[in-house]
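We emphasize that the prediction below concerns an isolated chain of 313 residues; any contacts that depend on oligomerization or on bound cofactors are therefore not represented. The input was used exactly as deposited, without trimming of termini.
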Amino acid sequence: GSPSQEETRLRIDLSFVARWADRHAPELADAYTAHARAALFGDYASVFGAPRCLDPSDVFGSAGPARHQILGALALASSECRGDWTRLYASGVDGLSFHRLCHQILGWNGPTILVCRSSKGDVFGAVVDEPWREWHAYYGGSGCFVFALRPTLRICRPRRGAGARRDFMYLNTSSRTRGLCIGSSGGGAPDTARIAIPEQLGDAVVHVRRSDLTFEAGDLAPTGGLDGTVALDALEVWGVGDAAAIANARRARVVARKTRAEHVRRAGQVDKSKFANSDFDREFLFGKTFANCATESEFRRPIREQDADDGDA
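Result of the prediction step, given as a token string:
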């Protein structure tokens, strides 16, 4: 006979769940497999690498259900978010400094997660699948996406079809269009970026758009201003991967810093004044020498003098 009204409603609901999972939690099948293996054989990590924070976080909070919900949501959204999370930059430790942010992420040879918490509690950010590098144009791959975790979960993946752009990630510290950007609708970055971290990060404001031509539309920070400005409470960048990937990425950053330091040493023997005109070079290349040049608004909190890698660089 024909299906009952209740059976029809159930089919619709299950269809909706399947579509939702395909978009927001494509790793859900692996999680269920891991759960079954854990129940039957006690083996969990070998199937589904549950995310594990190796460092404290102002955004995720202390260990507990709230943190597990946030980390779990991203792990279900992308296999890039599984395994260990090691903190590369945290505004609560490094200060709200764009140049210190660049210093911490440049050279890290692996995927990263940028996550922000607004002053009103919105949690949003982006997963990028390529290492950050300075360049005059966008780069990145289709594994990138932007997300909202609070107050609601939203995963916005790359657009497909005519008109879709591949403006995934951008970082520039020296040209007219300075900033760190995720997504774009074309034109100059960061004016049309989906998420824009400005060079004036010390003002504790980032810019977030509801839509762009790179990622699917969706409000990432619903409590933000009508002009897209979002008052920032915390900003963090995390390197992700298994233990071997984390170790390799860390070694690559050490090598990159040594290479850059050697370039600076050689250039400094010629004319140091050429490298003192850039705020980023003062912070990134010369460290303490120009520490007193930073304005109070740029460094709301003390910065780390060194991180774990600097002693090896």
